[in-house]
Each structure stands twice: as C-alpha cells, then as structure tokens.
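Possible regression after last week's pipeline update?

I re-ran a chain I had predicted before the update to compare outputs. Posting the input and the new output here so someone can diff against the archived version. Not blocking, just want to make sure nothing changed silently.
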Amino acid sequence: MFKSPKSYIVAFTFTVWCSAGLVHAQDYQIGTPASAAEIAGWDIDIRPDGKGLPVGSGNAIDGEETYEMVCASCHGVFGEGEGRWPVLVGGEGTLADDRPLKTVGSYWPYASTLFDYIRRAMPFTAPMSLSDQQVYDITAYVLYMNDIIEEDFELSQQNLAQISMPNEDGFFVDDRPDVQNPRCMSECADPDQLMMKGSLAGVTPIGHFVEGADAPAASHSGQHDLEASKEAERKASITGEEAVTVEASQPAAMSAAAVAGESTYKAACGVCHTNGLAGAPKVGDASAWVERLQQGNDLLISHALQGFAGSTGYMPAKGGRADLSDEAVTNAVLFMVESQH
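New output (post-update):
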C-alpha cells in the first residue's frame, strides 16, 4: 500500500517524542525511585476531617501520667508553660487583645491536627518516639485541661475529628488582598518618625531584653526578678494558686562560670536533664550523678562537647546544639554539676 511521505514524518516524529519522554523521565541519575513502603513512612499527616488517624483510643485519666512524664517539664504540670516554652491552657477571650494568649483551648482550630502535631513533633528532643496509644492519651489530657472533653471521655479515630474546638470558626479562607492600606500620595507620615513594634515570643529566652518603662535600668538581676514575678503571676492566673512574691536575687553559691551557664542550661539542656528524658541524668538526682561527678569535670565537659554513649542513652555533641559555643556548653555543664551540691 502506498503511504505518503507526510505519514512517515508524523509517525517518526511521534516515535521520537515518546522516546525522548521516556528517556527524560528516567534521566535524573540521582537516588532511586521511592517505594510504596518508603512513601508510607512519610505520609503520616492527619487532616482536619480526621483522614489519616490511626486505629486506637485514649483518655485523659491515662494521659495525665504520660503527659507529666514527657510533656510537663516544658509545658508545665497544668499546661501553664515553663519559662519560655509554649502555654497549652487558658487564653480564652484574649485573641482580640493587644497581647493574645494563643493556646490549644483559645486558638487551635481542629482537634485531629493536635494529634498530628504531637505524634509528628513531640517530645521536643525525641519526635515520633511516642506510640499511637500515648498520643491519643496525651491529646485527650490536653483537651481535658482546656475543658473541651470530660476526663473519662474515650478519644478514638472515630470521634476525634468530630470534636468542635472553641476557635474553629476563627479559621476561614481569607480572599482579601494581602495589603489593605491605601497608598499614601500626599501628606504622608515622615518615615523617620515611624516606629515598628514586635512581640518576642516562642521558646527563646529574652532575659537580656529590657521591657519598656518598667524595666530595671541596666540591672540584669533586677530584670530577672521582674520576669520571675510576672511569670509567677501568669502561672497563678492559670493554676488558681496564689502567686508567690519573688524575693530579690541573692548571690548564688556557685562559680561565675556556673552562674553564666544557667541560661544555656534552661534554653538547651533542661528539656532533657530536668526530667531525665532519653536517659539523661536529672539535675538534682544525686544517685544519677554520683558516678559522673567522680569522673571529674574535665571528662564531663569532654562528653558534653564531643558526644557520649552510655548505658542509659546517647547524647550527641553539644546535645545536638551545634550553634552553641564550647564556652557556653562548658558553663552549662558546670551549672549542672554545681547544682548537685
């Protein structure tokens, strides 16, 4: 049968195009294709509608013990937050205030995504180390502390997404333009007179910042007392306990290096060493430190700087905080050592 040259050209072009596509699809030359099992290992997100929740259940009664074991050292026994770690409870009715308190009870939109976050990212030093059972229990306990469910409510994959959070309606698709203010074309404010204000939030210690007009002028100890008093008042408003008056700071019976290391300990070391997480010796537990103290400070400091694998667990170099200087880590170790006396 006769075929025109055009038909050959079309067929040839189609064949080349398909061949080029196949070659291009396999031409990355990096790694290997992800298997279904590998993809499943990372495909763990849980949607607001509950899709992705694992089979299981838990309640606040069982969750209290687990929470106190792995969460309270940072978030407080009552969810009131320790130091600069996030507060989990309270804040209702503050979202419209100048300084809103965003917590699970006042801000979080969907109960199922609370489970997702805890399972994915907590505890801070060992994410994804909790079993699904523990995550259900902790989630139930946090919801219970915020008066969202009852203490004996059995949380499960069947009802978690059906729980209505207080601020759920506060989340919606905002289709407004990113910028609301009209452009100033005349009689505009002097740029040199404009002031930008920001809020210091999160887990970063801010003791070295001075707080407005009520800040003790150039007094680190005075600033510490002010922050301690405010922290006591904040916790009292959540726990219902009477705020304890914070006395003026007294010179610590520690070396200057140990005193300097306290801030590093609280910001980087306390999350493990306050409650013995991941096998870390608890500060203040004499039995956990007696053998270590006998080894001498030089060896302890060396372990902290270079990493150490012991019978109770493994600590990476500088506790995984490569951003810390050797001096800061050394001072933190001295603070822990001298805190045992």
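Follow-up from reviewer: compared with the archived run. The longest strand covers residues 57-58. Marking as no regression found.
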